[in-house]
Amino acid sequence: MSEPITIGGKPLTIHELFAIAEGQAVPVLDPDPIYRARLAAGADHLARRLAAGEVVYGVNTGFGDSCVTAVPAEHVAQMPVNLMRFHGCGTGRIFDEVEAAAIVAVRLVALAGGWSGVRPVVLERLCALLERRVLPCIPAEGSVGASGDLTPLSYVVAALVGERECWSGGDMVPAAAALRSAGIEALTLAPKESLALMNGTSVMVGLGVLAYVRSQRLARLCATLTAMTSDVLGGNPGHFDDRLFAAKPHPGQRACARWIREDIAEVRDRPLPRIQDRYSVRCAPHVIGVLLDALPWIRTHLETEANGANDNPLIDPDTGEVLHGGNFYGGHACFALDALKTAVANLADLVDRQIAQICNPDMNHGLPANLVGRTGPDRAAHHGFKAMQISSSALAAEALKLTMPASVFSRSTECHNQDKVSMGTIAARDCLRIIELTETAAVIGALCLCQAVDLRAGAGCHARARAMHAAVRARVPRVDADRRMDHDIATVLAMYRAGELPIGEVDFP
After folding, report:
1. Peptide bond into 147 cis (omega under 30)
2. Cβ count near 93 (within 10 Å)
3. Could you give the CA distance from residue 248 to residue 250 in angstroms, rounded to a whole number?
4. Which residues of the chain have pLDDT under 70?
5. ω before 251 within 30° of 0 (cis)?
6. Are 289 and 508 in contact (CB under 8 A)?
């Protein structure tokens, strides 16, 4: 059963948001009457100001550069739906259900602070979408990351009112039908509610939540693969001595060295082919450690953005004052995700260099070239993992190519009103793609290493290597003759993503 997580009483962590996205937890709006009253206050204040004839951006004015256009009172009720409808121009792939849930969860939490002038019923409906897994089908492309993620978030609004399409039971169905099937009443939007839902950074941050958690696990996987590489190459365990890392004490770097050191703890007093291993083994903690040491401040940026009020205008729930500003700008999230994608791409490069070593007979200390497992008279006709190395190189190259910072590609748009924008959602999409490429390269590395363990007959291999080898071999056989290996990659990648590979615990914050 999914665990309930209260929305509104306190800020949510990245891992709580991740749990909601994965369906392991369900959000429940805080029932406390004091909290509910404060949440409702913003909408009440806004209604009074409109009744008094005050001008409020996006409520009785046009949107964006059209803020100079006054909207007569008799047409104000059309504005929320019109805003959603004209932003229905997203393109590209449709975010999957977990990605959509992450986006909805982050938008829910941002509105829960009570600064956005929306009624509690809006948050209750978002909770219902997440609980019943009726999730908007959101196209990935079309956001410049300020004024928030307007176009993709319009699909969240559409789901609430019963327009466009939703994921329901794994299928893409009309939103109105999905709501009826789930027993959720379509929402009639009040003034500003569409703007409050759309004018924020929740797409880039929702994707960033997923990227953060996946990156943590990827760092641990790459440490495990490094330990296995050291084993099959007869590496020097002294490279991971804690005294080295105490002398330059980056916490993540030191934690990574500890993981590797613990994984090879059984290996002692063996003859060393080289006194110093090549950098992709010896310096692996220094590469992986950059990611681990970046994660704490990336987490701070993402959690602050997720829990902060990031639409415009804000309504002070205590005084009712309307505050026009630019909290929809996703600069912090973009900077964090641009940094994260660079740190992760370096892991793809690291794994590819380790694969190159174990496939090269000039570097692998006695393993056959390309890890060929054939022993019969036709051995020369087989090529083992030669193409697998090419694939890992292609994946690493693509990951590295995507590290160009998105934020530097700001473009003036929307009649030069949005003349400086964050591009944070592009950074988030790039980051997830780099993680996908790096996970796949790492899985190719795992398959190569399991083949190397076979070829060494397990000699010199520690408990972690043996456990990884056993888990993989339970599903994928040794390569004794040339055969297709794309299914091998897909199988082990699915095992990794399902948590079925014994990579070790991620015990670094």
Report:
1. yes
2. 11
3. 6
4. 1, 266-269
5. no
6. no
Q: What is the 3-state secondary structure (H, E, C) of 357-397?
A: HHHCCCCCCCCCHHHCCCCCCCHHHCCCCHHHHHHHHHHHH
Record the tokens describing residue 72, joined without a space.
């007569």
Instruction: Report the alpha-carbon distance of residue 97 to residue 22 in Å, rounded.
Output: 9
> What's the CA dihedral at 298, 303, 308, 312 to 10 degrees?
50
Separation of alpha carbons 72 and 50, rounded Å = 11
What digits encode the pLDDT tens for the residues 225-248?
A: 999 999 999 999 999 999 999 999
Residue with tokens 């908007």: 136
Domains located in the chain, CATH noted: 3-200 (1.10.275.10), 208-497 (1.20.200.10)
Contact 315, 322 (CB under 8 A): yes
Which pLDDT score is estimated for 1?
66
pTM over 0.85: yes
Distances (CA, A) of 226 to 219, 221, 230: 11, 9, 6
Q: Which residues are annotated as catalytic?
A: 57
Candidates 442, 508, 428; CA nearest to 210 is 428
Please report the pLDDT score of residue 270 as a whole number. 73
DSSP 287: H
Q: Give the 3-state secondary structure of 122-154.
A: HHHHHHHHHHCCCEECCEEECCCCCCCCHHHHH
Please state the φ and ψ torsions of residue 165, each to the nearest 5 degrees.
-130, 155
Q: Within a 13 Å sphere around the CA of 221, how many CA atoms are in the beta-carbon half?
A: 31
Contact status, residue 195 vs residue 58, Cβ threshold 8 Å: yes
Stated as kind and residue range, the H or E segment containing 353 is: helix 331-359
Residue 111 is predicted with a pLDDT of 98
The phi, psi pair for 417, rounded to 5°, reads: -75, -50
Find the angle CA(434)-CA(435)-CA(439) to the nearest 5 degrees.
120
Phi, psi values for residue 113, rounded to 5° = -75, -15
Gap between the Cα atoms of 300 and 13, Å rounded: 9
Q: What pLDDT is attached to residue 266?
A: 65
